[in-house]
# Entry
Amino acid sequence: MNRKKRALLYRLGAVALLIVISAAMLWVGRGHTVYFDNKTLEYEGQSYPSFYRMTVKDGDATVAKLAKRERGMADWMGQHFEMQVEVLTEKGAEPVVYPIKLELPYGMDGIVVNLPGMVAGLPQQAWVSEFIPSEPQGAQEEELPPTEEDLVPTDI
# Structure
């Protein structure tokens, strides 16, 4: 086999390998950060109050324990998120367990899930939103370089 044919076979093999790796990565999915809110949700004029306590579990591992108005988070690989939510409506009550299966939106990096809205059976657009970090407190405007007017002494 001459050199040109061998080089062509190596290149085709490399392209085929990249296609196989791309297909595997598409099948596995991308990583997501999922935030869980236990906050009151207002939707179509109705209020869905937060619960006294919530525990989010992934299999046997506890991902987040949330009191009223708290947020927890979990990192997840892939588009199919499965969890169990234990809900305590008031102190001393028996917990109610909800098995949850979610299809995570592919285009969102940080996904906020409002658990009271989800448990109430609302449509997904009511309780899923994208996490957008706020600017830190005290963020100042960029300082501009001094102009000629700033450099002229005024006390002459």
